[in-house]
Amino acid sequence: MTNINTIVTDMDGTLLLKAGDAIHPLNKEVLGEWQAEGNQLFLATGRLDLAILKFIHELNITTPVISCNGGLIRDFTKNEILYKSDISLDLVKEVLATIHAQGLDFHIYTTERILGPSKSGKIAFFDKLNETLPENEQVPLTISADPLAELKEGEFPLKILVIEESKEKQAAIKQALSGLPLSVLSSASNLVDIMNKGIDKENGLRYLATQGISI
């Protein structure tokens, strides 16, 4: 890693093992030694940052964390949100109406937790993972027949995740949402991520650069 003083890494499919619940011990060791030399490690993930607290702690991350595909940047050393691109409630309602009309499963990622109508998809994964985690690293989850009604004052929706195996249904939801000011992309073979238009991990890195954070 000579002459490299900053690394930005994704989590799923990159830093994490295939199961998505651990970092390879060798990667952890090498990155730890590299950080100890004064270098910077940034995490940029499609997950909600509160769903990777285990890894933030394991890697001793002190840099701002980019999550929700760039829709949220939080400094955990100060417990401070530096940037968020929350989807307006009217737009969330329009998206959910389309999702319901097509009979699709979904989660809502907010600044505080992951909401969904059933214990499925990522919620099922994180619920199982929580059984192995200490309380301060558990992923905050809420299951409700009406997830949007659960939003509290000061809690903001950042991303809607559709869980669907069918490529035809994925294409249909993308087409149905194409006229809205949204970024709609497939982050995995069975997932469709929905954020505000222009939101991606590169956008998150650009924001940090404008704030004088060296990347």
TrEMBL record:
Keywords: Hydrolase. Pfam families: Hydrolase_3. One of its GO terms (molecular function) is phosphatase activity. GO terms for cellular component: cytosol. InterPro entries: HAD-like_sf, HAD_sf. The keyword Hydrolase applies. This is HAD-superfamily hydrolase. It comes from Listeria grayi FSL F6-1183.
